[in-house]
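User: Could you check the structure of this?
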Amino acid sequence: MSQQQREAVDRMLRDLPPTPDDLPMAERRAGYDAFMARTVPSGVTVGPTVLGGRPALSIVPDDVLAGPAVILYLHGGAFVMGSPDGYAGFTAQLARRAGARTVSLDYRLAPEHPFPAAVDDCLAAYRELLDRRVPAERIVVAGDSAGGNLALVTLLGAREAGLPLPAAAAVLSPLTDFTGGGASVRTKADADPVFDADFLVPVRAAYLGDHDPRAPFASPFFARLDGLPPLLIQVGSNEVMLDDAVRFAGRAGAAAVDVTLEIVGQVPHVFPMHYEVMEEADAGLTRAARFLSRHLRR
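Assistant: Sure, the predicted structure tokens are below.
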């Protein structure tokens, strides 16, 4: 991507909806959904469903893997924004490229429903897929940013509950450490077009409140990671959350988890979301889809 294109993407990202102090939360959420909206590609059917007692979107490509095979997708939005509807175009792209039925969960949002409400919703959704007799080896989990956190925590919750684990998980720019312990929170603050060095302060207040930021189901970086399924972690080099991905991948690898870490240079937070305008994003989204599809086919 040319320098001019990079600057255009940076300007677009700096146009994100304003902080909660600037607008009522309902308006901020509507603005975020509008910003994240992408066109649903042809050959994909999208419709409402319910999973784990929560609303969700069913996203089914025309060319789909035979038998029961599901991607459980958990959207981003700093735990206070985002929705399956706002993400429909993106998740439809992922589903089409993976050739797999996808369910995008509308988990409860903070501050109305703080931690661990979203964690409970995501684990309940995974339990229901198992109850519907979808084999664990035919389920994969994916998510971005806050949803990447929840995807990893869903794996931890399933393991602690003694449930069979999904075949794999792909997480994009995941938040893994609510303490902000990685150096990139400071060293990448000037390069990141989305977040500054203090980005965790309002997110932590809204989502965690008085809960310990080192609790494993809040910050999976601090969890015991052995026994997790294969992981793909994608992150951009310009992110304040770069070390959330790098340090988590290091701990996962040390725990004998099969983990693939992709760091793509000079791209922003959740870079695959920009598949329409960035070659690196389009290629990254395809790699994530193929990773998920490969594990669903095993």
